[in-house]
Specification:
Blueprint (H helix, E strand, L loop, with lengths): L7 H6 E3 L5 E4 L12 H6 L3 E3 L5 H7 L4
Antiparallel strand pairs: 1-2, 2-3
Length: 65
């Protein structure tokens, strides 16, 4: 069997934590920010956890993570 390839787009977007959970950056913070409230923009900072329904597909894209 050849080695499995990592989906490089997914590798740039997701990190697997030591406990096995997957973290991701927040969306909706790149452009069209004038119509968004300051509170909304502040709460979009930082990272969050990938939803449990999507973890399996993300882990399959990152076979060595």
């Amino acid at each position: 069997m050849p080695k499995m390839k990592t989906k490089k787009g997914a590798a740039k977007r997701f990190r697997v934590r030591a406990g096995g959970t997957v973290k991701r950056g927040q969306a909706f913070k790149r452009h069209i920010l004038t119509k968004k409230t300051t509170k909304n923009k502040r709460q979009l900072r930082g990272t969050t956890e990938v939803h449990s329904t999507n973890v399996e597909s993300v882990r399959s894209m990152l076979p060595y993570a």
